[in-house]
Design goal:
Length: 373
């Protein structure tokens, strides 16, 4: 009897990281796992390196019937008792597969706070045959309820992160060497997909204000996405290309975080923002927008500063405040590190989700798989 985890993501982003961490914890705890991933994807490679029990299935889109039939065969063969979908594509194709294979328990994670109201098909997917929708924040739960989803079906489990040993999170000059930054340059970084809802354009507008008031501030943008050319053009048009650095996708994010002085997240829509947790684990103060699940991670005035979304002036003002007050930044960083270790570990996330699985199994009188010894 297997717990199926299905993630059709072709990239390595926050959602794939969460499904990977959950799969690792489930297998580590001794539960029977089958991790369904896109063949040759970054997630596939990382799952192989971690020696997880995996089944590669190519899911081209939400209406891929061939993928659904292949997945149904695997679910039948390996006696799937529960399937947990981690993205929209896996939910559409996987739900059909689970129906064919008669998998009794079905769970979906929801990590974004986009409304379902504009897409009747999405609402139907989230209502039909789903035993639990796991929202990563109360903010996401609120949006789901507003979209017509029954609150009784929604569980809230925050994302989790895996922590580096304390000796690996010390301040580093890694980025300063790579880009020849001066010792007194102040490095402000964002790690996020270059998509509209992440609000990079407002951060770049804020950079214009920062350049005039504190030219030692440099903006480090880590991530790739469809808006790269547009954002690069914007930086040139407002003459901040000399202090805005686009690093693209990087595998060395922990080293980059250890090089920063401050972390920023400028989203106008955000389910939770696990990159903030990583920053806090590195003892970085945070400036972020007061949207979605972010206030459930960043405590305004204690671990960072929250500002209104789509407001470059507020972003710039908050960044300048922490630039000018090193003792406050140090205080925020220390408190943030303590909070994230207390509340947002991958193990805690997995334990809560396994508790949901067990509750659903009891409710439906389904045998809960025994631990593999």
């Amino acid at each position: 009897m297997k717990f199926f985890q299905v993630d059709a993501g072709k990239e390595w982003r926050g959602g794939q990281r969460q499904s990977f961490l959950l799969a690792k914890e489930i297998q580590k705890k001794g539960y029977p796992l089958e991790f369904v991933v896109q063949p040759n994807s970054p997630l596939h490679e990382k799952a192989l390196e971690a020696n997880l029990s995996i089944t590669p299935v190519k899911i081209r889109n939400e209406f891929d019937l061939m993928a659904a039939f292949r997945l149904a065969r695997v679910m039948k063969k390996k006696d799937g008792v529960l399937v947990h979908f981690h993205d929209a594509h896996s939910l559409a194709a996987g739900s059909y597969a689970a129906s064919i294979a008669k998998v009794p328990l079905r769970v979906i994670s929801r990590r974004v706070d986009f409304s379902l109201n504009k897409n009747p098909f999405s609402r139907r997917k989230y209502k039909k045959g789903i035993d639990s929708i796991i929202a990563v924040s109360l903010g996401v739960k609120k949006v789901l309820i507003a979209s017509g989803i029954d609150a009784q079906v929604i569980d809230v489990v925050p994302d989790g992160i895996d922590f580096l040993p304390p000796e690996d999170i010390k301040k580093s000059d890694y980025l300063r060497k790579e880009f020849s930054f001066a010792a007194d340059d102040y490095l402000v970084g964002i790690v996020a997909h270059l998509a509209d809802h992440k609000g990079h354009k407002y951060l770049i507008d804020a950079t214009k204000i920062l350049k005039d008031k504190a030219p030692k501030i440099k903006i480090i943008i880590v991530g790739e996405g469809p808006l790269l050319m547009e954002l690069t053009r914007q930086a040139k048009e407002i003459h901040v290309e000399d202090i805005v650095f686009f690093l693209g996708f990087r595998e060395d994010v922990p080293k980059i975080l250890a090089s920063l002085d401050l972390f920023v997240l400028s989203s106008h829509l955000e389910g939770m923002g696990s990159s903030i947790m990583d920053a806090m684990a590195h003892k970085l103060p945070v400036v972020a927008t007061n949207v979605g699940g972010i206030p459930e991670v960043v405590v305004d005035g204690k671990t960072g500063l929250l500002v209104p979304p789509r407001c470059p002036e507020a972003l710039a003002e908050a960044i300048l405040k922490l630039y000018r007050d090193s003792s406050l930044s140090l205080q925020f960083g220390q408190m943030g590190c303590e909070i994230v270790h207390e509340k947002f570990s991958a193990e805690s996330m997995a334990n809560k989700i396994l508790g949901i699985y067990e509750r659903l199994a009891k409710y439906k009188s389904i045998h809960f798989p025994e631990l593999i010894t």
